[in-house]
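Teaching assistant's notes for section 4

Start the section by putting this record on the projector. Ask students to predict, before seeing the second block, whether C2H2-type domain-containing protein will look compact or extended. Collect guesses on the board.
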Amino acid sequence: MLHTSAARNLLTVVGSVSTDASEEIHYLLTTGEDIVYTAKRHSGRSWILMGRAQYACTCGKMYSQYRNLYRHQKQECGKEPAFRCVHCDYKCFRRNVMFMHYKSRHHIFCKETLKLLVSGKNPNET
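Reveal the predicted structure now:
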C-alpha cells in the first residue's frame, strides 16, 4: 500500500504530467498498487509500478531486484557517500553516478579531468 506522504507527493505532481500519466497514476492510487518515484536522466518524472516481488531494506528503501537490495545493504545503507562533487554539494555512492553528475550538471566531458575529479583531486593543481 502507498504510504500517506508518498500519496500526497504523488498528488502534487499529477497536474504537471501528461493526461495519460495522470490516468495511470489515478489507476495506481485507486487500486492500491505500490508505486515508486524514479528520476529519469533526460525525460523528467517517471512512475514505476513495482510488482509483487519487492525487496525492502530495514531503512525503508525498496528495490525491484534482489541484487540492488544486496548492493545497497553492503555498500550504502547507514554509510556516508564515498564520492563528493568538488563544484557543489552533490554526494553519491558510486563512481559511475559521479561521472554522470559531472557530465550532466557541470558539462565536464574530458576523460582525464573526470578521472581526477572523481578521485577527489583538483585538476587545476596537477
